[in-house]
Amino acid sequence: MSELSRRDLLKAAAAAAAAVAVPRFSLAAVEGAPSHGWQFASATEVARALRAKQISSVEITRLALERIDRLNPRLNAVVTVTADLAMKRAREADAALAKGEFWGPLHGVPCTIKDTFETEGVRTTSGAPELKDHVSKVDALAVARLRSAGMVLLGKTNTPAWAGDWQSHNEVFGTTNNPWDLTRTPGGSTGGGAAALAAGLGYLTIGSDLAGSIRIPAHFCGVFGHKPTLNVVPFRGHVPPMPGAHVGPVDWPAVGPLARSAEDLRLALSILGGPLPEDAHAYSWKLPPPRKRSIRDYRIGFALDHPLCPVTGEVRDRLVASVEALRSAGAQLEEGFPRSVDVREQYKTFLELLWPMDLDDASPEEKARVRALKPAPDDLLTLTMRHALDATPAEKATLRNRRVPMRLAWQQYFQDHDAFIMPTHFLPAFPHDHREPQWARTLATPDGPRPYFDQNMWAALPVITGLPATVAPVGHTPKGLPVGIQIMGPWLEDATPIFIAGVLEQAFGFQIPKGFE
Q1: pLDDT (tens digit, 9 = 90+) per residue, 501-511?
Q2: Nearest CA to 260 among 456, 58, 511?
Q3: Lowest CB count within 10 Å: 232, 416, 490, 511, which one?
Q4: Which residues are catalytic?
Q5: Is the pLDDT assigned to residue 358 strictly greater than 90?
Q6: 132, pLDDT greater than 70
Q7: If we measure between CA atoms, which residue out of 122, 225, 309, 169 comes closest to residue 494?
Q8: Which residue segments constitute the domains of the chain, with CATH numbers given?
């Protein structure tokens, strides 16, 4: 017998032994199964049932893959499916648990990963034609931490090219649809992940957020999302920049989780957070608990509108309902932006930092179109866009230096307030529109068209300050489209806005899109 055939037989025997050692379960027969079914269970519920050996990773992974196979063609949310790897990992997870080995808090839980995160042995494109055949050699730090916690990887979810749009569309994989209305976007840039969660295609996912890329998809798809405090989760291994870049602390993008429950956000953040490996010998990180144990002890500010970015009536109605729900639960609510915060200046600074990233690589023709624009004196979007074409490196450095005083202005407010609530977006999910350039697009509202880049405003404040922000679903518009509210918390106190999202979950919570039951 050749050495090759001997090895093959040994592998086959080992695989057969493992299969025999892993018990089979009927998910429908599990006592205490979630009322909404295992397909829409939270990651925490699945992890708990797996550890108690009430269900197996093989069965729950098979369920998720079956749903991807059946439902994903309508969404195009999961664009690279790793079915064989997932089932192999699930079998290993069950075999390990049978021997008393526990990998971590996500032991055997099937999850997805945004296609902007390097994932060893798996195609990672960031939606860019230049990377359509790129297979990662290493894991991004966030992916490595999820694997170490026991995650089973189902596949990669869609994103716009280079994570550069509020719609998840690219030349490599095409367009992702919103499960609440297939003619509309699930948002971007983590639109594929949010759509997959809403449709029950996995139990947890991660995204990145520079201008609402976690929070806006959560709002559009009716799920929970969290943008952590700046650099609590390392950005290393995210694309962009290019694969293999050795990224240290960053100026403003963040990596964070999306989920179907607030509890899952907290679980995921406890796994994802922590210093870069080269810093871990000097310091560690832990997620501080929420400021208070009872919502009755919380003092929360809120602003549900602003002249810089008015929200539509259908969105405002849901935001008002969410504030009233918190008030009914016993929280102290105070309306109005803090006196210490100059909202216009913070938004203006955000735009002045953002536009150079969008326009530096623009064609001469596109730059000429921008220069030809004639903005009104109060047109902050166009004024800052034009100025960006001529901004010097010294000006850009000065802009970055403004961020700490802006954060401190909010921290002054958070000395006697626990959180601040505001809209996530001025609209619910809008119809697909992939015309170029992006800045020339408009969004239809009952009061007339609005600039496409107005989407920046409500996303900007937690980004320019680096503060944590959680989005929680708070019901639907009369047309059945989800609305999410944004809860900003104090510096490094991520569990506080997540706690408030959990209170809102009791009043509203995740709902299943029709047709994806």
Answers
A1: 999 999 999 99
A2: 511
A3: 416
A4: 114, 189, 213
A5: no
A6: yes
A7: 225
A8: 35-338+417-507 (3.90.1300.10), 345-399 (no CATH)
